[in-house]
Amino acid sequence: MSNDAGALPAGGGHEAAHAHWDWSVWPFVASMGVLALALAFMLNFVYHQGFAAAIVAGMGAVLVVSGVVGWTNESMGLGEGLSYGAMGWFILAEAMIFVAFFVSYWLMRLEAPFWPPESTPPIPRVLPLVMTAVLVTSSFTIQYAETLLHRGDRAGFRTWLLVTIVLGASFLGMSGYEWNHLIHGGFTIATNVFGTSFFSITGFHGGHVIVGLSIFLAGLYAVSRGKYSLGFWRTAGLYWHFVDIIWFFVVSQIYFW
């Protein structure tokens, strides 16, 4: 029987019988990237140094993506059985950050005499619905890919993983198009409090989509080299479902409330 049809062990064939520590430089690289992105934000909106902010943001983005990709490649074969639970705790922490964003938005909105504030252009509503459909579809495709991997259908897994990546990239492309349209229309993060909330919340969510796609791309590269881990992909899928669920809150609160 070929490798593409062979059944996988419960842990993907790479699970260790005991826990051990693994040292890696990649989490540090990714964290330095996040720090650089925060610095770029400060340079642009506090010190109004747009050119310097763009350079630092570019460096930060490269560091974050490199850290995620490198860390993913290292962890693909480890599979200690703790990753799924650890991802749950990570998702809880990230959810609290989103809660902080939304609470801030709700307080500003409820205290405002009218909403949205003056100088706010009409926000398109059709495109966010299309983006929602794309992201929901990607959640189903990654779940189906995981199911195929569990059955031992590696060729099918690769196909549906690639479909998920294309859908996620399409979502980012539509988000970028929307941002570009609004910014060229004079609506920016500095226009008013709604602009600050809109670009902060959608941008933070978009950053999570980028991280998810980086994990998928790094995993796809590992898969192309014959490295499969069911535990890894269950964890990656859980993260992607979280990104999808958060988008429902974004689209309902920012676009339609």
Give a nutshell description of this structure.
By secondary structure, this protein is mainly α. 74% of the residues lie in helices and 0% in strands.
User: Which sequence of SSEs, written as H and E, runs from N to C?
Assistant: HHHHHHH
End-to-end Cα distance: 55 Å
- Average the pLDDT over all residues and give the rounded result: 87
**Main sheet: strands, sense, barrel:** none
The CATH architecture assignment of the largest domain turns out to be Up-down Bundle
Q: What is the number of independent domains?
A: 2
What would you report as the Rg, rounded to the nearest angstrom?
20 Å
Beta-strand content: under 5%
**Total count of helical runs of at least 4 residues:** 7
CATH topology term of the largest domain:
Four Helix Bundle (Hemerythrin (Met), subunit A)
Keyword list:
7 helices; 257 residues; mainly alpha; 2 domains; disordered N terminus; Helix Hairpins; Four Helix Bundle (Hemerythrin (Met), subunit A)
Question: What do these coordinates show?
Answer:
The chain is mostly helical and 257 residues long. 74% of the residues lie in helices and 0% in strands. Helix 3 (83-111) runs antiparallel to helix 6 (193-224) and helix 6 packs antiparallel against helix 7 (230-255). The longest helix has 32 residues, at 193-224.
